Amino acid sequence: MNRRALTLSVVLLAAGCRSQGAQEPHPGIAQMSTPASQSAPQASAALARRMPEAQSDSGPVAGGMPRLRLAGAPSSPGALQPADPVSYLAYAYALSLEVPGERLTALMDGHVAACRAAGLRVCQLVSSTRNGDPLASLYATISLRAEPQWLQTFMKQAQADVIGAAGRVTAQATTTDDLTREIVDTEAMLRAKRSLRDRLQQLLASRPGSLSDLLGVERELARVQGEIDSTESTLAAMRTRVAMSMLTISYASSPRAMASGTFAPLGLALVGFLEAVVESTATLITVVGGLLPWVVAVTLVGWILLRLRRRRRARTASGAPPTV
Predict the structure, then answer these.
(1) Are 95 and 249 contacting, i.e. CB atoms less than 8 angstroms apart?
(2) Which of 46, 235, 259, 297 has the lowest tally of Cβ within 10 angstroms?
C-alpha cells in the first residue's frame, strides 16, 4: 500500500511538471517522469523499477516510506553544490641522511643513477655536490625535480637504502607553495593579450591605411606578441613547478670514535715548529753572511792601527825622533 501511494504521488508530480508548457522540467524530475502515452500500470511498473535508484543512502523513514532524493537535485532544499576549486600547489621535500662515510659515496651515486634511469620526463638532476674525506667527515647534496608519484616511491626507497647501509634519517621536511593565484592571474592576462593580438591582426588585415599607421600597428602587434611569449614562458615555468616536485637530499658521514684526522693538529704543530727553526736558521745565516765582510775589514784595520801605535811608542822610548 505504501508503494502504491508513493507511485501515485510521483505520477501526479510528473503530470504537473508536463503541464507547465514551455518551461523546462527540473533535471531530477525529468528523469523520473513517464511519457504521456504510458498508462497508469505501465507508469507504476516503470517507477517501481526506478525505486531502488531513487532511495536515499540514509534508509527509510518512519512508516516504511523510503526517503527520495531526485537525481541531479541538491541534497537539501535551496542548497547549491559549489564546483570543486582548482588549486595549483608546488611541493618541495627535503631529506637529511646520516650514513657511514665509506658507504656514503655509493649510496649517493645509486640515487643519482636511479634518477637518470627514469628519464628526463620523470626525473631531472638539478645539482650534485660532494666534499670532505671519506675517512673523516664527508658531506654531499643532490637536488632532484621529479614527477610527484615517482618521487614518493623514490623517497621511500631512499629511506630503505639508508637503513640498509647502516645509516638513519635525521630530518625530513615538506613545504608547499600555493601558485593558484599567480597561475589564474597569468592565464587571464594571457587571454587578454591574445585577444588584443587577434584584434590587431584583424585591424592590420581589414583596414589598410597610411604607411605610418600600418607601421604603428605592426610595432604594437610585435610588442604584444613579445609580451605573450614572455607570459607563456612564465606560465609554463609555474606549471612545471606544479607538475614536478623538488627533492633535496643531504648526506653526512656518521661520526667516528677516533677519526683519521684526530692527530692532525699535532702533526701540523710539529711541521710548524720545524718550519720556524729552518726559517730562523736561514735568517741567521743571512745576517752572518752579510756582516762577515764588515767584521773582517774592521778587524784588519784595527790590527794595523794597533801595530802602528806600538811602533810609535817603541821609538819614543828609545829617544829616536818620531818619523813623520
Answers:
(1) yes
(2) 297
